[in-house]
Amino acid sequence: IENYKEFIEEEREKSGFIERVYLNFREISKTNTSHKGSQRKLKVTMEKCRHYLSQVKFDGVTEETKDLATLIGAWFDENSTWLNAQKVYLESLKAPRNIFTKVTFDEKGNPIYSYDPKEDLVEETKQNFSYQWLPKQDYHNLILGKYCNCCAHIAGAGQGIMRASMILDTCQNLVIRNEVGEIIAKATIFINKQKGYGVFNTVETSFTYREQEDLKNIYQAFLRGTKAFIETYNKNYPENPITEITVGENRNTILPYLNKKQHPKTNVHPSLHYKDYALKESFYRYDGDCHTNQRLVLKK
Fold it and tell me: Are 247 and 223 in contact, with CB atoms under 8 Å apart?
């Protein structure tokens, strides 16, 4: 009771925190001892709960992986999830930072990617929301579904779309941030470089940002982000530009703003089968929301 306000604040930031403290309390208490010889049992504090649920349960956390462990541990308890997060992150290091930057090739034909953060596409945080093309090596790619109330995270049914967005040179996440910089919506794009089109799987939004005005701001930031992408990509690849970008209708939270005049239904462009990118040991078979109905987002 004395920590009630702190618990509520943690629950607001990390849905499920109270339940996780309850289910893990015996272990939290057992490991909460002084560092003196008697190993006296200490009173469990909020800080102890936060620490236990963020790092202490994972194996092999190093100084280099501490930040990743903290982020994953804020949401997940299982060591297998921690190992999977590391695996996908290491895979992402072989991918470009952004898929819209120019790629060159060495003498053997191997791609040379740019990792210059100055080439990122990101708006300044503002009142009516902002967009960012999240660099593929950003840890938050692993848990976007937690921010946006969807399954696209390291332990979710959308594990395949999460992994594809980080390891492929044809996929990336566009995120929308609120006025204080928190991620509140996301959309994963796939581009077909040869045929010159792109497909957003869908647009998914936090439950707390589904009022009319919020969705309108998300829609407008989404359009600005799409326009910035297509202009930058085409500047870097004028010989084979992207001429059309569409988005899936299924589970699309901004569908009310995709009006038929500006965003008509289109022929369905083939996209990835995201289930193919789930980790081998995973039983998840989510395949995406864009394979049946699509709307036009932008055409050049």
Answer: no
Q: What would the pLDDT profile of 123-137 be if each residue is shown by its tens digit?
A: 999 999 999 999 999
- For 249, phi then psi, to 5°, come to -85, -35
Q: What percent of the chain has pLDDT over 90?
A: 68
| 263, two tokens | 């965003």
Q: What pLDDT is recorded for position 121?
A: 98
Phi-psi region of 251 (alpha: psi -120 to 50; beta: other; left: phi over 0): left
109 burial level (CB within 10 Å; 0-12, 13-18, 19+): exposed
Sign of torsion, CA 206 281 164 139? Answer: positive
Q: What is the pLDDT of residues 55-73, one digit of tens each?
A: 567 889 999 998 999 888 8
Based on the number of CB atoms within 10 Å of its own CB, is 5 exposed (0-12), middle (13-18) or buried (19 or more)?
Answer: exposed
CA nearest 266: which of 198, 182, 169, 194?
198
| Tens of pLDDT, residues 87-127 | 999 999 999 999 999 999 999 999 999 999 999 999 999 99
Give the separation between CA 15 and CA 27, rounded to whole angstroms: 21
Per-state percent for the chain, helix, strand, coil, to nearest 5: 40, 15, 45
What's the pTM value of the predicted model, to 2 decimals?
0.84
Can you list the pairs that 278-284 forms with residues at least 24 positions away whose Cβ atoms lie under 8 Å?
278/159, 278/160, 278/163, 279/84, 279/87, 279/88, 279/159, 279/163, 282/159, 282/160, 284/156, 284/157, 284/158, 284/159, 284/160
